[in-house]
Amino acid sequence: MPILRRLFEFYLDASIHVAFAILAMVHVTSITLNISVDTHLSWFLFFGSIVCYNFVKYGVEAEKYILVTDLHQRHIQWVSFVAFVFALYHGYFLSLPVYITIAGLVALTGLYAIPVLPNARSLRSLGGLKIFVVAVVWAGSSVILPVIAAGESISWDVRVETIQRFLLVLILLVPFEIRDLAYDSPELRTLPQRFGIFRTKIMGASAIVPFFLMNLVKDSIGRTELIANAIICLVLGVLIWSTKRKQPRFFASFSVESVPILWWMLLLLSKGI
């Protein structure tokens, strides 16, 4: 099935799968914090994620961040353009507080990809900072934005959920950090470069413990939700210890990025939806 394989590869390369992962995290927030999901915000984040991820992955290599010569990347650019139009449409319906928060996250994403000054480096190139910037943006997008859009206050549970989400993204990034060892510049000083693969896996696995235990300090959490989170922790542990420098092609880009989608599905099942 060469055609299906090419479509699947394009689905991953065009950042559609990671956009679904972010969409899933938004709905996880809706369930765990018992808030309503703003439909326009959900789709804004979905389409906006496609644009941002493709810009970070491919735009920085293009001339003036726009002109691309590779046919495959040109197709991805068209997907990004269509996604941008849909993001603008859904963004029109968002409130001012949401706009302000989005502006901060977009600015952080921009600094991550583009040097501010001609001879300066982007945040992406600063040693050890890359994964923390990504984790902050994901946590802000999938927890803080839905809470603000729902008109809710930043309560204790919201703070705990935000820290949990930050930890989750850090854990999910470990397989990517190890996979990219062959391509990352030594200047990046990524975790595997600084501590080695084994210690990086230890750190990733260790982060699963506080990620789960933080459920116990929430003001409100159900037993079925706790079970769903425990299953996700087991899945994370298996993925971390299965991570190798030479990975199956779709291990990180599909299997690891599917964890938020699995989490959402488990929570839906736990709620009997």
Automatic annotation (TrEMBL):
<feature type="transmembrane region" description="Helical">
    <location>
        <begin position="40"/>
        <end position="56"/>
    </location>
</feature>
<feature type="transmembrane region" description="Helical">
    <location>
        <begin position="250"/>
        <end position="269"/>
    </location>
</feature>
<feature type="transmembrane region" description="Helical">
    <location>
        <begin position="76"/>
        <end position="92"/>
    </location>
</feature>
<keyword id="KW-1133">Transmembrane helix</keyword>
<feature type="transmembrane region" description="Helical">
    <location>
        <begin position="7"/>
        <end position="28"/>
    </location>
</feature>
<protein>
    <recommendedName>
        <fullName>UbiA prenyltransferase family protein</fullName>
    </recommendedName>
</protein>
<feature type="transmembrane region" description="Helical">
    <location>
        <begin position="226"/>
        <end position="243"/>
    </location>
</feature>
<feature type="transmembrane region" description="Helical">
    <location>
        <begin position="163"/>
        <end position="183"/>
    </location>
</feature>
<feature type="transmembrane region" description="Helical">
    <location>
        <begin position="129"/>
        <end position="151"/>
    </location>
</feature>
<keyword id="KW-0472">Membrane</keyword>
<feature type="transmembrane region" description="Helical">
    <location>
        <begin position="195"/>
        <end position="214"/>
    </location>
</feature>
<feature type="transmembrane region" description="Helical">
    <location>
        <begin position="98"/>
        <end position="117"/>
    </location>
</feature>
<keyword id="KW-0812">Transmembrane</keyword>
